[in-house]
Amino acid sequence: MKNTAKALLLQALAAMAWADGEMPPAQRKLLTDRFHDADVSSSTREGWLAGRVTFPDKADLLVQLPTMEERLEFVTHLLRMSSTDGRLAPEEAKLLGLLGQEFGMDADVLAELTRHVR
């Protein structure tokens, strides 16, 4: 799989969906709806739907998402994935917090994005 921004986003979405140990139907649908034009193999897709997924390497994300605008959009997609089941699990919040730090986001910005997505 190429480390394109789109493939990394899908991997991150799958990792976020599995962060709390389960992927409810709404999260599964959100993820599979994004597969149609992605550059990932069918076996990778099946694996992402079957069980826990490793979050993409943050260094790869920083290369593929060089601007703060792109990073904010990326985090917004992750927040949408995490909120499809109506709650932000502690594991999801921790992952978002760590990612926000890596991306150079102020905690207040991340909190505002979280409120906006809900």
Feature tags:
single chain; 118 residues; mainly alpha; TerB-like; 7 helices; 0% strand; globular
Summed up:
The protein has 118 residues and is an all-alpha fold. Helices cover 68% and strands 0% of the residues.
Topology (elements, then pairings):
Layout: H1 5-18, H2 25-34, H3 42-50, H4 58-64, H5 68-83, H6 90-102, H7 107-117
Helix pairs in contact: 1-2, 1-5, 5-6, 5-7
C-alpha Rg (nearest Å)? 13 Å
In percent, how helical is the residue content?
A: 55-70%
Name the CATH superfamily assignment. Answer: TerB-like
Count of folded domains: 1
Uncertain residue segments? none
The CATH architecture:
Orthogonal Bundle
The helix-strand sequence is: HHHHHHH
Task: Give the overall form.
Answer: globular
Distance between the termini: 32 Å
Report the major sheet: none
SS field, number of helical segments? 7
**Coarse structural class:** mainly alpha
CATH class: Mainly Alpha
Mean pLDDT: 86
SS elements, strand count: 0
Strand content: under 5%
CATH topology: TerB-like
Question: How would you explain this protein's 3D organization?
Answer:
The chain is globular. It has one domain: TerB-like (Orthogonal Bundle). Helix content is 68%, strand content 0%. With 118 residues, it is mostly helical. The longest helix is centred in the middle third of the chain and has 16 residues, at 68-83. The protein has seven helices and no strands. The model has no long low-confidence stretch (mean pLDDT 86). Helix 1 (5-18) runs antiparallel to helix 2, helix 1 (5-18) packs parallel to helix 5 (68-83) and helix 5 packs across helix 7 (107-117).
